[in-house]
């Protein structure tokens, strides 16, 4: 296993009190795998990503859990050790390409700085490598682009540069937090293709975070569905998309525009997510669930539907029990 | 870049016209008769009239103004009533002393202002933050005459570390006059003794003068830096594995300084204006002393020349500020 997030709980301290944002989240990533994390905005995806590279906001606290990278707990590393891992072992791409680059530094220079951080090369070699890296992310005229400033590039180009920065080492794991959300659809697909080919070429695993279940389809090997800081379902992408078990996953899929009669109104999930400092004690989806029963006020069990596929829901029937993992999540 | 310079130069012409018009008017509105000052209270009427004639005081006002403006554009700012020297010559004699003091004060304020600003931002809400802010706030709270006297008493009187007055020791051979800045001229001719000596004289007055501007710069740099450190590109760069201080110096600082440039430019102008008191305390032979004495003498040509010089100085500072924006911010270059 490359990365194992085990029972991670994170909370934030604010003027409204403590809010529990991640609730015993567990995610596994094998070498070379592309893993999706899907959930509505506010469900805690970014917090998960930031926790891995230890860039959580100052008012965040990690209440429990471990994050094992090649069996070493990242949460107990000191600042110097974690710095040696950032970028070099674990790269990160953020959502907003417009603000992710230093506005007053040339693209080539920004890349060269990162390259020199990870490899013992001269300034000149770093600059040449920077241009190579730009070519890797399919930027034409890499030499010219390396002399440009971020504001001179389009959103799609900037996101390629951000990916180039994250892949400069190249790392073993790339965390991509909604890397295409801010881009228009054609550019989105190019970026996805690019990440997939980089992953194959360099053997980099990807933790792909998105609010858009439709994007996950032909991109991820496995997905985790997250709702309000809790993983509610997980499995192979095809299983989760075609045989969704958790009522929340089903609602997500029903709200997709794909393959629907354009005249038919899109389905939206009824109700509102709860306020974070009033977490329900039982199932997190209870307030919006069409299937809820009395037992839902207790923490739902993990119900296995196949060797890889499970949902945390009282209403799901277990059919292919996994004897190793009968624990609550 | 060229349009900016052109605009500033056009502005310069307007400023010269505006300022000279206002000072000219004021010199005629303020009661006081320069001719009387020259002949003295017991001077006879004939001499008095002759002097009025010489100074052009009997001409109609608009003739006086046209004469004055003609002078300005041919480099003739009139003759000082007090020193009987051309005002331009006086300015050339005294201004470099002030400029040198102001430049060193400015360097002091910038260097420590930026340094403390960065540290207080990076160490936000720790004891370093409080110490740095307290240190800089003291500068504006203490009036210059007080901090200047305290410095003189301690570092000159008690400890004898620094000289207490003047630009250079009396027995020191003066460097030849090239720029008029002793530290520069002495270096240009390789006279290191004179360089050391004049630098030594500069330390106390420039610290006193610069200390006042320190807190403005600290406050601006600190808030700008806090803002930049919260930007996404800083987080991206951290996620790319760059170390904290590399980020602060190479990524954050430059971006943080851009919005600070204007304030720093204004600071420099304030130093020029504020040098008067410091010069009086340290017996510094600069513009400040010259002007204060000229005012006492109702020496209008001198006062007008000084005002004009400072105004032109402000325009030039603004030009430099504009150019700095271009240097620091590639987005402005387009
Ligand atoms: N610095 C913070 N202080 C308080 N609450 C925060 C902070 N950052 C995120 N949160 C809360 O944590 C929850 C999860 O946020 P996030 O992980 O950004 O969601 P998303 O799934 O959209 O990426 C949200 O409800 C958000 O309000
Ligand atoms: Mg997010």
Describe the 3D structure.
The complex is a heterodimer of chains A (329) and B (334). Chain A is 29% helix and 23% strand. In chain A, helix 3 crosses helix 4 (123-136) and helix 6 (155-166) runs parallel beside helix 7. Chain A has an eight-stranded mixed sheet, sandwiched between helices. Chain A has a four-stranded antiparallel sheet with strand order 2-1-4-5, covered by helices on one side. Chain A contains ten helices and twelve strands. Chain A is of the alpha/beta class. Chain B is mainly alpha-helical and 334 residues long. Chain B has one domain: Orthogonal Bundle (MetI-like fold). Chain B has 15 helices and no strands. Chain B has helices spanning 2-29, 34-39, 45-55, 61-73, 87-122, 127-141, 144-158, 182-188, 192-229, 232-239, 244-257, 261-281, 287-296, 300-328, 330-333. Classes of the chains: A alpha/beta (329), B mainly alpha (334). Chains A and B meet through helix 2, helix 3 and helix 6 of A and helix 10 and helix 11 of B. Bound molecules: adenosine-5'-diphosphate and magnesium ion. Residues 45-46, 177-178 of chain A line the site of magnesium ion.
